[in-house]
């Protein structure tokens, strides 16, 4: 189940997100939707990076059967900026960021792996007919 803390006026398409989550885990996931200022504060506090970012993941450190997988924080300001810039729907950008964050919760790490996270993102993007992800965009730059 997806638990949503929506601190914005954005109407999140929960069915869309729940379908993606169901493909990868049976555990609960918390999503926090916020603005750039809030995600910058969180990024500064927990990652010592004083910048607004698009998505942050906070996996639960212990794997207990009925505990949630973790939390994903997404900046709706970034969702809107990137979807406008790239000409796709905000819900598609939100789904891309959710996939990225969820893969991190599941233990993937594109900064140190050998391409496994990129490959899993590609599979999910194709399956859900989504635009290119952050990682794929970065690869092509």
Structure description:
By secondary structure, this protein is α/β, with parallel strands linked by helices. It has one domain: 3-Layer(aba) Sandwich (Collagenase (Catalytic Domain)). Helix content is 49%, strand content 16%. The protein has helices at 14-24, 36-47, 76-86, 90-105, 116-127, 134-140; strands at 2-6, 29-34, 55-59, 70-75. The protein has a four-stranded mixed β-sheet with strand order 1-2-4-3, with helices on both faces. Helix 1 packs parallel to helix 4, helix 3 packs across helix 4 (90-105) and helix 4 (90-105) packs antiparallel against helix 5 (116-127). The longest helix is centred in the C-terminal third of the chain and has 16 residues, at 90-105. The chain is globular and about 35 Å long. It starts with a strand and ends with a helix. The mean pLDDT is 89.
Could you name the key traits of this structure?
141 residues; alpha/beta; Collagenase (Catalytic Domain); 49% helix; 16% strand
Structural class: alpha/beta
Continuous helix count = 6
Rg, Å, rounded: 14 Å
- The number of domains is 1
Largest sheet: spatial strand order: 1-2-4-3
Distance between the termini: 36 Å
Please estimate the helix content. 40-55%
- The CATH C-level class name: Alpha Beta
CATH superfamily: Metalloproteases ("zincins"), catalytic domain
Shape: globular
CATH topology: Collagenase (Catalytic Domain)
**Level-2 CATH architecture:** 3-Layer(aba) Sandwich
User: What is the H-and-E element order?
Assistant: EHEHEEHHHH
Tally of strands: 4
Uncertain stretches of 5 or more adjacent residues = none
Strand content: 15-25%
